[in-house]
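Figure caption, in words: inputs first, then the predicted bound structure.
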Amino acid sequence: MDEDGNIAIIGGVPGVGKTTVINKALELAKKENFEITTIVYGSVMMEIAKEDFNIDHRDQLRILPTESQKEIQRRAAFRIGERARGKVVLVDTHYTIKTGEGTFLQGIPQWVSDSLNPKLLVIIETYPKEIIQRREGDSSRKRDEDTADILFEHQLINKTVASTICQKTGALLSVIKNGHGKAAEAGKVLLLHLMSLKHD
Ligand code: ATP
Ligand code: MG
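Bound structure (magnesium ion present):
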């Protein structure tokens, strides 16, 4: 393993099931005695936002001025890089974030990928209509009401962005389908791809 640790990034549009699939992979990893540390990028951003930007809920982050979001994002990447030393770390994040104006903010701009130095990029995806249903069925979070067309476009953009980061960093790319009722299967594939990092 790399002395700096092996960081995998996992992304996908809000509500696609990233956290669900990660939890399935963690359950399986426990049985295999394989240690994975998960870090939610947004939570580290929230630590910083609470400390210095007067924000107290994660869904408020994306309505901050873009420059403030970028500053918090940059500081979070540095903090995560520090925490990842000597470990296999899975960073739960977004490749792009749709802003209130409908533009797409980069989740992993170059200054973030430079700090994280990822070895694996994972994309979780499924059909737009399933994402709409998942968002509607999850009252614990406040997510945008996007159309199927917007979700299709957002997933395409995410895949393009993730491929570009892999091309620049040499990280492996993993595209995992999280079909309806198939989160456990998706978690199994995720664990397999994470375990392959340990041998590098
Ligand atoms: P966010 O980016 O906002 O954190 P997320 O991608 O982590 O979202 P989750 O919170 O894991 O998404 O899942 C959103 C909802 O979809 C939850 O109610 C979850 O139970 C449901 N869900 C996740 N995966 C599946 C699946 N394979 N089949 C059916 N429902 C699912
Ligand atoms: Mg999540």
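Residues 148-169 form the longest helix (22 residues).
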